[in-house]
Amino acid sequence: MSKNQNKWLEKIKEEFLMTTDTLWENEVSANLFVMRVLIVTAIMAFAVLLMAQLGLFMITSSSTRSTLLRSVIELLLVAFLCYYFKGKKKWLKTVLIIVYAVVLGRITMLLGHNVVLLMVFPIILSVRYYSYIFTLFTGVLTLIVTTIAYYVGTVYQQIRLDLNMIEVPAGTTLQFDVFGLLRTAIESQMTIDYQHLWWHTLQHSLLPKYLLFGMIIYICTHIARRGRMMIFAQQKETMKTERLATELNLASNIQTSMLPSIFPAFPEREEFDIYASMDPAKEVGGDFYDFYLIDEDHLALVIADVSDKGIPAAMFMMASKIVLNNYSLMGNYDPSYVLQQTNNRITSNNPSEMFVSVWFGVLELSTGKLTAANGGHEYPYIYHRETGRFEKLQDRHGLVLGAMEGSKYTTYEFILKPGDAIFVYTDGVPEATNKAQEQFGETRLLESLNKAPNASAKELIHNMTKDIAAFVQEAPQFDDTTMLALRYNGPKK
Predict the structure, then answer these.
(1) Residue 449: how many CB atoms within 10 A of its CB?
(2) What is the CATH number of domain 264-488?
(3) Any idea where the domains of the chain sit in the sequence?
(4) Are 286 and 308 in contact (CB under 8 A)?
(5) What does the pLDDT look like over 378-402, one tens digit per residue?
(6) Contacting residues for 407 by C-beta, under 8 A, at least 6 apart
């Protein structure tokens, strides 16, 4: 067997016998749909019988009525078979279409030219399976059934039509000529030229219908092929989306694992209470926070926001975090120096031209002295126990990191007394937006902090998260929301 023949056999098995599971759910759904069409056709045929019984439809032949009734029963039996198996058999579509085509052919044979369009129904229904080979099979089957129905119907009408449809004087025989015109003859026996009859039936009736059916088959096979291609394309896109979702989930896990997430973070250290959270707008975010002991007496605090979102921002964020962490652990406690070295390293190899805003502080645990530098980040909020309120600290800003090599940053310092606290955040907090396009803003931020200013670091962030959620409600989140809070308890006793 040649390679092309093997290819065609595999194609037939795949599309006709459904050897793959890709379209199995669609095939079951199509079987149930065809089942409903068969039930509707049976109901319509039964309605025709009722109308004939009431004299509203001209069917006077008892054999025609009995054949219609038999067709109704056959359609309902096949529909019940499909219902019994819930459409979940691979051979069901073939049985459904063949029975439907044969029943419609019989109805066409009995009722003549008035119902010839019924024969296109199986072809149209076959498109629902999205298999152009099955649609082509249905089209060929329909042509064969239509041809048989026309020839049998013509002979049937020639021999059996006499007194069933038209009242004819006694002793008169009714006959069709080859063009379908009626003529009567007073003769005891008719002679029929079947060769002449079949040729004219083919020439004047079947050939035009063959052309019509051929066009319908061509259109339906094209639709079936296109539908199949679209389903496979959709499946491929779904697999791609699922793979991307898996990768994003993995990236999110990696990003989360790089941030301190176990609280209390330093249960053995009584000098401070610290808590932080990050809520990315997408699967992965560009914000990050960090805190770590440089040595036994110095705690580093970092909050940062990358200019972009998604995976590129997450990769840039991780690189920035690693570089900043490395420079801060070299033993230099000057935040401006750490930001300057980090900026130079980032800008030296930054083809994406992304940047990151950073607030970096170093808390001396024995004295409460906090030295910090700000690289284009939001202002921190400081709580002093004497005043009993949080207040914004308008520190001096430097340029964001990654924007320009050689940028200078300014170190400033202040003292945290026992009970004092600091709250730093990214712009996703004040810029959280509700459905009315109103931003949460700095006023609400400050009000939220001062609802319970003496609360623990964890409670401060949880209260802020609740207030933002109550303000935003169902509005979508467009920016990452990251917060870090620290309360200084005093030097180690």
Answers:
(1) 23
(2) 3.60.40.10
(3) 3-240, 264-488
(4) yes
(5) 999 999 999 999 999 999 889 999 8
(6) 340, 343, 375, 398, 399, 401
